[in-house]
Amino acid sequence: MTTVNDPAVVAEVTDLYLKYEEALANNNLEVMDSLFWDAAEVVRFGVTENLYGSEEIRNFRASRPNPKIEREISHLKVVTFGKYTATVTLEFRRIINNVEMFGRQSQTWYRFPQGWKIVSAHVSFLPV
Questions:
Q1: Which SS3 state, helix, strand or coil, does residue 48 take?
Q2: The pLDDT of residue 102
Q3: CATH of 7-125, one of 3.40.50.720, 3.10.450.50, 3.90.1150.10, 3.30.470.10
Q4: Beta-bridge mates of residue 77
Q5: pLDDT tens digits along 35-65
Q6: 71-110 tens-digit pLDDT
Q7: Strands of the 115-125 sheet, one edge to the other
Q8: Is 51 in contact with 43 (CB distance < 8 Å)?
Q9: At 1, is the pLDDT very low, low, confident or very high (cuts 50, 70, 90)?
Q10: CA 22 vs CA 28, 40, 69: distances in Å
């Protein structure tokens, strides 16, 4: 039987997610890349882009016109399934061109022999 939300696993993934959030806010490409699975199968659906594979994700981040993402997160929820699979969901608030925007984000994490990696991610804004 799979253990859901083992406290140690939840804490581990939560710490990794917060590391990702800090890297996102500071445009630390090295840390963000290290937390994503380096494979053709990784997917990131963004606000305006669909990215398939680690190369597309890296290229997008490197060419982003506004590289620092300042936002407030809320409703951060980490759910783990056994010791190898986790989901992270949250809501966020950003000010873009003096307009308050609300969005949501989800990630699926998997523990590989080399550690936890994001294997799928989604970011979207709610309608204004």
A1: coil
A2: 97
A3: 3.10.450.50
A4: 89
A5: 999 999 999 999 999 999 999 999 999 998 7
A6: 999 999 999 999 999 999 999 999 988 999 999 999 999 9
A7: 50-52, 43-45, 115-125, 99-112, 85-96, 72-81
A8: yes
A9: confident
A10: 8, 25, 10
Q: Is the pTM of this model over 0.90?
A: yes
Of the candidates 64, 2, 56, 4, the one whose C-alpha atom is nearest the C-alpha of residue 28 is 64
Cα–Cα dist 45/51, whole Å = 6
Selected residue with higher pLDDT from 10 and 96: 10
Cα–Cα dist 117/69, whole Å: 21
CA nearest to 118, candidates 83, 92, 85: 85
H-only helix segments in the chain: 7-25, 29-35, 54-63
Euclidean distance between CA atoms 81 and 10, whole angstroms: 9
Token couple for 95:
């000010």
